Amino acid sequence: MKIVIGSIQCEGNSLTPVRTTFADFDYAAGEAMYEKVQVMDLLREHDCEIIPTIYAHALPGGPVVKEDFLRLAGELVEAIPSEKIDGIWLYLHGAMYVEEIGSGDTYLLREVRKKVGDEVPISVAMDFHADNTDEIVELANCITGFRTAPHCDHRETQLRAMRLLFRCIEEKILPKPQLARADVVICGDAVQTALEPLKSIMEMAEEFERAIPGMLCVQVFNGQPWIDEPYMGPSIVATHAFDEKVALDCAKRLADRFYAVRHDFKFLIEAREPGEAVRLAMTAPQKQVFLSDSGDNTTAGAAGDNAYMINRLKEAGAKSVLVAGIADAAACEACYRARLGDVLTLTVGGSLDPASESAVITGKLVYRGDMLSYTGGNAGPSATLDCGDMTVVVTKNRAAMCRPDIFASIHLDYSRFKIVVVKLGYLFPELAAKAERSILVFTPGSSTERLADMHLKRIRRPMFPLDDNFRISGGEP
Ligand SMILES: [Zn+2]
User: Fold this and answer.
1) CA separation (Å) from 75 to 32, 142, 382?
2) Tens of pLDDT along 49-76?
3) How many domains does the chain have?
């Protein structure tokens, strides 16, 4: 079997003014991409002829600059040979947002389909937070995605998509996935697959996938709310080997179920207003409390340059605080011009998003060095300043300090601080496992958890929670 593999990912946020560029992508072309994807063993076991294209993954961010995206998409399509191939495996995010284009995933699939025609199966693996367009579903033959949030099944998802592709090739089928929408927008941090009400929906999807004869895949996508487009929101995609009606019925039943339990989605972690969160963290009996600056969450595409929490914690007189971290290229460069041990006064924050606050900090430069990135690559230079009651990590680029190994990469022992501020929503599993207590803080910003604060203009209506009680039928499956 001749199999083409490719992967371009950047979870988009159309609400931030910060653009994502080619330089923001962890990029590998040709055989260099083999170590970046997790399907190689499976391909080799099946004795496949592997045709690599490109792998390009970026930290979630604002719209990708059009020409940079076109370069990546062009390279991927160009690398697909003109001679006969048996199938295409793509690993996408599903909520990539491109200047003037909108859904980058849709554009890419359209170009791939144009190149190979309708007879070559395309199987796609995506993120649980994919905002599927109708066209994505029309262009692909199999669609699957993560089944955990927080995500810990990247590998299984990639493998499932590849096995689905093998089935299409071996059984000579070209399935047409079917999509149903729930018209319910639930911010990511109120949706965790291991907890109700989503847990039952995930189980129901798995049961349909297992029990319905000929069903290849039943996938629940939550979507993510920071894309102001009509296709934003949860979708269920069911893929049957040959019966589109059965697939559509199945997707609709799950979408109805999602709508029926809409009032049961609550913040499943402790979530507080900023003032309350700061007070609770300072007086907490626990040794350590994580505060998630959720409005400036870089893993949801925000700039990561808001000094809002630095200012609130300073005003409150908080002690033993670690701010991990804040993006400010000029401040970081100033640290690289200084010597270790120097005391510097710097303005940090507000350099990327005009809506972000800045803060003046004075501290001793105690470390500088490159930081490990979100995707396992190099996030670029960082500097750590000890400002007495507060230690601040300043990064040259936008970064996400979402795992212990990222802290370790800059020799930072976060366990010695009482309060750790991170630019995340819910903590990533690796960090959550180490956190005694974590509070999601309702801070302002382009990744705000509050739908009303997003000022969305282009989403379809009616949509819960902006509207309610608009479905007449549906409910209990
Ligand atoms: Zn996701």
Assistant:
1) 14, 23, 31
2) 999 999 999 999 999 999 999 999 999 9
3) 2
